[in-house]
Amino acid sequence: CSRPQKVCLCPFLPINPLKVSICLYIIQHPAEESRVLRTVPLLAACLPPDKCKILVGRRFSEDRYPELATVCRNPNTLILYPGAEAANLEEVAVMSSSPSFMIIIDGTWSQAKDVFYKNSLFRLPKQVQLKTNISSQYVIRTQPTNSCLSTLECAAVALTIMEKNKSIQETILRPLKALCSFQLQYGAQIHHSKEHLLKNGLYDKPMPKNKRKLRRMELLVNNVKI
């Protein structure tokens, strides 16, 4: 895990990489690469190298990324990104055979939105989203809403659904829970979602002046899906 021995996560990783049929392509925003407490390295440590490929960048053209372009054009590829046009992954899993590839964008919500909409390749695969009631275990980082999950958690849930194997989610989440436990022991604080803070009058930062951002906060408080 490349961490100091006192906070080593290796005992919480699977002894052998998980056997999965789907290959994940993690499209990582460059800003995520410099974060200390990232979840993608933990995800990669749980899977075989040929089943978890990480591409870092903001723009992905067909000329510079021919392999990715081929994956995006494959009819058996899904992209995990929520939206009005996204199908429920559980329904897709019931109606079709297991996909060959799944693309997940790693970054903050604004970074992921920028990557998704400014790269035409990512509109080629079938768009899917998770309909789950689980709360994020990544409690040392603030999420926009109570239902938001980290990249590792999204991958864990998605793989569990598509591979029809509940133990996958438990195995992948184990090192994340250990990471958060270690950080809390050494002084980190539990981060509630922005939605939780706003609804309970605990949000202590200045409200944004930008009308669009202010409107998004109002929607969070009023339980409107954004």
Secondary structure: number of strands: 6
| Rg for CA atoms | 18 Å
Please provide the ordered H/E string of secondary-structure elements: EHHEHEEHEHEHHHH
**Beta-strand residue fraction:** 5-15%
Q: How is the main sheet built?
A: 6 strands, parallel
* Helical percentage: 25-40%
Weakly predicted, low-confidence segments:
192-199
**What overall geometry do the principal axes of the alpha carbons give?**
globular
EC number: 2.5.1.25
InterPro entries: DTW, DTWD2/TAPT
Keywords: S-adenosyl-L-methionine, Transferase, tRNA processing
Domain DTW: 1-188
List keywords for this structure.
9 helices; 226 residues; 6 strands; 6-stranded parallel β-sheet
In short:
Belongs to the TDD superfamily. DTWD2 family. This protein has 226 residues and is of the alpha/beta class.
Description:
InterPro entries: DTW, DTWD2/TAPT. The protein has helices at residues 30-33, 40-46, 66-73, 89-95, 109-117, 151-163, 166-185, 194-199, 211-221; strands at residues 23-28, 52-56, 77-80, 87-88, 101-106, 126-129. With 226 residues, the protein is α/β, with parallel strands linked by helices. The chain has two domains: 20-185, no CATH class; 192-222, no CATH class. Helix 6 (151-163) runs antiparallel to helix 7. The longest helix has 20 residues, at 166-185. Residues 192-199 have low confidence and may be disordered.
Topology:
Elements: E1 23-28, H1 30-33, H2 40-46, E2 52-56, H3 66-73, E3 77-80, E4 87-88, H4 89-95, E5 101-106, H5 109-117, E6 126-129, H6 151-163, H7 166-185, H8 194-199, H9 211-221
Parallel strand pairs: 1-2, 1-5, 3-5, 3-6, 4-6
Helix pairs in contact: 6-7
